[in-house]
UniProtKB/TrEMBL annotation:
<dbReference type="InterPro" id="IPR014722">
    <property type="entry name" value="Rib_uL2_dom2"/>
</dbReference>
<dbReference type="GO" id="GO:0003723">
    <property type="term" value="F:RNA binding"/>
</dbReference>
<dbReference type="InterPro" id="IPR041988">
    <property type="entry name" value="Ribosomal_uL24_KOW"/>
</dbReference>
<protein>
    <recommendedName>
        <fullName>KOW domain-containing protein</fullName>
    </recommendedName>
</protein>
<keyword id="KW-0689">Ribosomal protein</keyword>
<dbReference type="InterPro" id="IPR005824">
    <property type="entry name" value="KOW"/>
</dbReference>
<comment type="similarity">
    <text>Belongs to the universal ribosomal protein uL24 family.</text>
</comment>
<dbReference type="GO" id="GO:0006412">
    <property type="term" value="P:translation"/>
</dbReference>
<dbReference type="GO" id="GO:0003735">
    <property type="term" value="F:structural constituent of ribosome"/>
</dbReference>
<dbReference type="InterPro" id="IPR008991">
    <property type="entry name" value="Translation_prot_SH3-like_sf"/>
</dbReference>
<dbReference type="InterPro" id="IPR005756">
    <property type="entry name" value="Ribosomal_uL24_euk/arc"/>
</dbReference>
<feature type="domain" description="KOW">
    <location>
        <begin position="19"/>
        <end position="46"/>
    </location>
</feature>
<keyword id="KW-0687">Ribonucleoprotein</keyword>
<dbReference type="GO" id="GO:0015934">
    <property type="term" value="C:large ribosomal subunit"/>
</dbReference>
<dbReference type="InterPro" id="IPR005825">
    <property type="entry name" value="Ribosomal_uL24_CS"/>
</dbReference>
<dbReference type="Pfam" id="PF16906">
    <property type="entry name" value="Ribosomal_L26"/>
</dbReference>
<dbReference type="Pfam" id="PF00467">
    <property type="entry name" value="KOW"/>
</dbReference>
Amino acid sequence: MSSALSKELRGKHNTRSLPIRKDDEVRIVRGKYKGREGKVTQVYRKKWVIHVDRVQRDKSNGAAVPIGIHPSNVVITTIKLDKDRYVYGVSAFP
């Protein structure tokens, strides 16, 4: 499940998209929640959606439920780099 990179990250890493993962920061660019930014709290691979911090709906009993966003509708603005993430030349240790 990949998402597009922001223009700044595109120039820095010489790639247009990367697999999305938990703790990446994204901006929603399509749909009802367009313009919101937040951190990815969960990548739900079975349903092909991601859950973003502060994008949720209240149920009738008052509980908050995260809204699933398709990864093609977001742009990655900050990549979480650690020793485990080496994808397409993007590494925490250049």
